Amino acid sequence: MIVPKSPQVKRMLQYVGLPLLSLACFDLVVVLAYKALHWEWVALPHIPLALYGSAIGIILAFRNNSAYSRWWEARTLWGSVVNNSRSWARQVLTGMRVRSAGEVAELKQMQRHMVYHQIAYVHALRYHLRDVKPWWELTPMLESAGLNASELEALSVQKNVPLAIQQRMSVLLDDCLERGWTDPMQWRAMDESLNDLADAQGGTERIKNTPMPKQYDYFPQLFVQIYCVLLPLALVTSMGWFTPLGSTLVGFIFLALDKIGRDLEDPFDNTIYDVPLTSITRGIEINLRQLLGETELPEAEKPVAGVLW
How many domains are there within the chain? Predict the structure, then answer.
């Protein structure tokens, strides 16, 4: 996610660099043909440019609103993951009681394992959505969660690693109920937290696995390209030598709007326009490890060159 403190003109120009350069060159060719070579037939002053531009603007606005809705829903779902991760840790650490003094150390170890399962879960979900293998970062977290080598190997072959981790969390919760460390009412509340996490994961997977219809990409882009081609032909009679300036400026607006929509369509593509999953999961990890009483914590993610990952 781009988080610059001020407008970045260079990045803005690079955003649609090649199409904009092509449009500027075409504008220059048209104005030279009309003004220098006197090819008056290249001019098409009667094109209803304003009407066509209004129609294109409505199409782009509709497509961009749909794309932003997908992006914002993805961020909202991850907000649910944040909230339920904190709720899970709070329930684990405050809602369990031992039946005898000899179980205190064992319960504390179980609580630590359950919280670290949640930390591993959010990182695994981030990698799952970005189609990246997670094991280099997940292994130490899962070891802290009490998994041995054979359990790690079994988990590594899972197609949906976060789902497998959540299943283990449910097994640990059931074990706590059987041992009398939690009562049925508390168990139900904690199980609801797991259900809410599963719902949020399902929502993010739906966005990931259901791309925007191809027509939403193809036709707006085609209409914008046609409009940019017609711009200098319609403007050259009235603007003369200044046609490249006016045409390129208007074309830049439409090209940028088209690209903004296409960039927002897939919020989990691991690009600079995505929901900042690395920052969100690192924040969850810091919060949960603080609840465990740890003091040696990782640093929060910071923007790199104006981008928060």
Answer: 1
